[in-house]
Amino acid sequence: MLFRSALDVYRAFLADYTAQEKPGARPCEQTGGYVYHLDVMFRLLPGLRIIGMVRDPRFVLASKKKKWSWKRLREDRLEPPREWIRQKLQYHPWILTRMWTTTVENMLDFKGRPEMRIQEFEALEKELEPQVRELCDFAGIEYHREMCAGFRKENREGGGEVGRGAGRERG
Fold first, then answer.
1. What is the rounded distance in angstroms from the CA atom of residue 158 to the CA atom of residue 145?
2. CA distance 95 to 56
3. Model's pTM, two decimal places?
């Protein structure tokens, strides 16, 4: 296969990785860094759909507070000291707040575009099934009840990871 651009390589990677992980599924990028390049992505990837998940920043901070603890880092002997420093800086409340703010601001710049949907995490907790149905319609995928399985309410208190059912199902 001949690649004419870095974009071709990226598309091939996503398609190949998705085919291996879940045959028949669609590629889905879940890292947050894409938010800083939405203008380029919309221009280069016609038909792209972006769902920007926004979580209440208080719960973002609460879910990361244990990562910022020196005590936890010292107790975890598997991590080298430079990893302690990296986590201390990366998960500092001020830095997390700035990252959250700039990420949401970048998403809001594209609010109203037909290719962009901003979804509030807390709205999923209130009305999970209708919200997931709307997200499926937006993404052009068929809704399945199993997509809502695994979404856990303890996310609100920072006690669990983001619900896997709604976030991972790729159609």
1. 25
2. 16
3. 0.69
